[in-house]
Amino acid sequence: MGRVVLVITVAFYGCASAPRQEPAPSANRPTAPRPRRPVAPPPKKEPPKRELTQEEIHLAISQHSHKAIDCLKRHEDPGFYMMKLQVLSDGSVSKVTPVRVPTRAEDPRPYAGLPPDVDGGKDPLSPTSACLVRLLKTIRFPRFKGWPMDIQYPILLRHN
């Protein structure tokens, strides 16, 4: 009878191969580890401030003064408006509330330094107030640390 040879081939798919073994150190080969390249530390970011300064607030709002002029042109209601803003620490405005400014006859203190023809008493629900609210919600302030800031900001709309 003849011999029968059975050959079985086994293949492993998707398996990792065995780790490669390093040859034993020899006299010709140095055993010291290779020096590592120095890694530069990541650039330091300046930490956010605790609160916004009056200059930062004024600068952020004044950069949008041309849009406030558009509100005046659209609604033709010049005067003294007061807006209360809530600014989050990421610099976004989360809430804007128009505040009624007393008339000059009711309380002259807010008008110190303003021309005599400027008066307040503007309706917080007027179309001009609504236009200013929409404008102020688009403003981005610098980032800062801490709780949201409440800012009361006067806006004088008048024809030149």
CATH class of the domain at 54-103 and 118-157: Alpha Beta
Shape: elongated
Percentage of residues in strands: 15-25%
Averaging pLDDT over every residue, what do you get?
80
Q: Assign the CATH architecture of the domain at 54-103 and 118-157.
A: 2-Layer Sandwich
Biggest β-sheet: strands ordered side by side in the sheet:
2-1-3
Please tally the β strands and state the result: 3
Low-confidence stretches: 1-18
CATH topology type of the domain at 54-103 and 118-157? TolA/TonB C-terminal domain
**Would you list the SSEs in sequence order as H and E?**
HHEEHE
Roughly how many Å apart are the termini?
Answer: 119 Å
Largest sheet: number of strands, sense, barrel closure:
3 strands, antiparallel
Structural class of the secondary structure composition?
alpha+beta
Gyration radius, rounded: 35 Å
Observed structural traits:
single chain; 160 residues; alpha+beta; TolA/TonB C-terminal domain; three-stranded antiparallel beta sheet; 3 helices; 19% helix; elongated
